[in-house]
Structure formats: C-alpha cells, structure tokens
Amino acid sequence: MNASEALKVVVTGATGNVGTSVVRALSREPRVASVLGLARRRPGLTLPKTEWAEVDLSLERDEPRLAQYVEDADAVIHLAWRFQPTHDPVETWKANVLGSLRVFDAVAAGRVPVLVHASSVGAYSPGPKTGPGVSESWPTHGWPGAAYTREKAYLERVLDTFERDHPLTRVVRMRPGFLFKEESASEQRRIFAGRFFPGALLRPELLPLVPEFEGLRFQTLHTDDAADAYVRALLRDVRGAFNLAADPVIDADTLAGLLDARTVRVPRSAVRGALSAAWKLRVAPASPDLFDAVLRLPLLATDRARRELDWEPTVSSVEAVRAFLRGVRAGSGDATAPLTGRRVG
User: Fold this and answer.
1) pLDDT at 312 over 50
2) Are 309 and 232 a contacting pair, CB within 8 Å?
3) Average pLDDT, the chain
4) I need a labelling partner for 100 at 20 to 30 A (CA). Which of 12, 34, 109, 172 fits?
5) Residue 93, φ and ψ in degrees, nearest 5
6) Residue 13: left if φ>0, alpha if ψ -120 to 50, beta else—which one?
7) pLDDT for position 3
8) What are 165-174's pLDDT values in tens digits?
9) Confidence of residue 138 (pLDDT cuts 50, 70, 90)
C-alpha cells in the first residue's frame, strides 16, 4: 500500500468508544478515500466518506459478508471487543477471540496490505508500577485470572503466527492504557458499574473519600488522542507494537483531587471482597478478576510512538478522566447503540 494513494479503510467495532473516534479521524484525513464501519448494529451517525454495514464477528454465518467487505480494502483497523458478560467467559471468547480470528482470516484471504489491531496494556504480563514504564518488548502473557487479559494476550500469540505466515501484510498492534472521552462515559458506566448505577453519584459532595490501596496506579488517554495514533500508524510504514498513554500517572491522590475528596487507606483485600460480593450477586458487572489484573498492569513507556509516529497526546490523563466524570454525571453519549447516553439504565 502506498500512503500517497487514496485509501479504502475498513474498521471493525466502529460504533464503540475507540471506533467512533477512529472513524471520525479517518473521515477528516485527505489520504483516506472511504471508510466502511462494521458493527453489530447500524448507527444513526453520518460522517463524510463513511458508510456502515452490520456484521456480528461472533457468528460463523457472518463470515462470508465479512470477507466480502474486507477483500478490496487497503487496510483493516480491528477494534471490535465485548467486555460483557463477565459471568460467561465463553461468550466473550466467541466474540473477541474467535471474532478476531475471522477478521485475521479475512485479511489474509483478501491480501489486505495493512492490519492495525487494538491490543491493550492488558496484554502485558504483570510489571512495575513505578519508574519510566515498560517498553513494547515486555512479555505479553496477560494476567491469567481475567478473561479480558487472557483474550488480549492470546491474540498477541495469534498475531505472532499471522506475521510469520503473511509477511506482506504490515501488522501494527496498538497497546493503549485506559481510554476515556465524554461521549463514551455512559457506556463505560454500564460496562463497569452497572446499568442502574446513578451517574449523579460521582459528585464531589457525595463522595468525600477515595480509597487508597496497593497497586492503584494506572495510565489513561483521551480516546481522540488514541485515534490520532491509529491513523498515524495506518499512514506510516511502521510495524509492531506501540504503547499509548498520557501523563501523569493516575493514582488515589489524583482521583481525590478530581472529586474534591480526600484519600483513606484501606486494605486491598477489603475492596476486592466487596467487589466480589457485588459481582456474585450480579449487582456489579465488573469481575474481581479484572480488578486483580488492573492492579498488576505495568506502567507504559511511550517513547516509540512519540518517536516513530511523531505522536503526542493533546489532552492530559487528568483531563481525560475529568471528561469521563463529566460524561457520567450528564449521561453523555453518541448516536450509536453502544454509546447511547443515559444517567441511569
């Protein structure tokens, strides 16, 4: 693929948090001729140069349609992912792992020149929470206890084989920290806190305390900045993995500052126990295994993305979290089924 040509790009998972930002960025890019957004449900979203099609990657019967959409593409950006149901890891495996295999097979059959895959910090093995962060060479074996990290790590191994067997396809793996924007806040509230968690509760006057415990240090990034990195990776002759994160590292003190609260030291086991009970009662959708994984995620060094993609975040990590909190309180959303805005429900 010549980056000077007008490109036809297919995006899976195009209606989610990352997908909507990536599709918007592509629709503004002069070197992109057309964008085909694939999703389980067609959105009510109109963008320049963009068309939509319905495909469920978890369904074998949709394979022929997927192959048809991908066969004449210049690039595929694979973003589709399901976080739920955490009580049924077989279901997420079908969507995330088997669905990704179908995408990779379609890319191979169509001899698509470029595949950009949404990996994650969650693919990394446990690592340091201090220091400059790990490079892209850090092991990607995930945390075995959580479905999300198992699936992300498994697909890293699949892509190792894909790259060996299909050397003419340029493969890029994006490994961002946690991605936030105001428009995706309602979706993320539903995924991690539950449909009936009132967004209005995340107000300073109602949350005077923020728990502080070992391992509560993580990196975030505004989703639009991640989308910019995806487009840069698409258009440049680069391969391999890129860590993405903004400064500063988020910890309990940072969260307390955002909520105008104070921190209180609590045992990590107590927090996990409460989360586990809520998950078992199906009050909270986020599993305690995912909690365990988050506390073990390493910090990321982003030197390669800044150097080879000429990429810099335009929004700080604090502002990205602030946008998320603002969106949760307001019930913000977008014109797609996953990002429907609601304060409750």
Assistant:
1) yes
2) yes
3) 94
4) 34
5) -60, -45
6) left
7) 46
8) 999 999 999 9
9) very high
Average pLDDT score over residue span 86-107 = 96
Q: How many CB atoms lie within 10 A of CB 265?
A: 9
- Domain layout of the chain by residue ranges: 7-181+220-245+299-316
CB 125 within 8 A of CB 138: yes
Amino acid at residue number 297: L
pLDDT in tens, 188-230: 999 988 887 776 666 666 678 899 999 999 999 999 999 999 9
Query: Tokens standing for 217?
Result: 């240090």
Residues 249 and 194: their CA atoms lie apart, in Å, by 26
* CA distance linking residue 298 with residue 253, whole number of Å: 19
CA gap 342, 183 in Å, rounded: 11
CATH classification of 7-181+220-245+299-316 is 3.30.360.10, yes or no? no
Closest alpha carbon to 187 in 14, 19, 334: 334
Is residue 172 within 8 Å of 240, Cβ to Cβ? yes
Q: What is the pLDDT of residue 204?
A: 65
The Cα 171–Cα 164 span in angstroms is 11
- What is the rounded CA–CA span in Å between residue 331 and residue 312? 29
HEC-encoded secondary structure of the chain: CCCCCCEEEEEECCCCHHHHHHHHHHHHCCCEEEEEEEECCCCCCCCCCEEEEECCCCCHHHHHHHHHHHCCCCEEEECCCCCCCCCCHHHHHHHHHHHHHHHHHHHHHCCCCEEEEECCHHHCCCCCCCCCCECCCCCCCCCCCCHHHHHHHHHHHHHHHHHHHCCCCEEEEEEECEEECHHHHHHHHHHHCCCCCCHHHCCHHHCCEEEECCCCEECEEEHHHHHHHHHHHHHCCCCEEEEECCCCCEEHHHHHHHCCCEEEECCHHHHHHHHHHHHHCCCCCCCHHHHHHHCCCCCECCHHHHHHCCCCCCCCHHHHHHHHHHHHHHCCCCCCCCCCCCCCC
Two tokens at 312? Answer: 């810099």
252's tokens:
């309990």
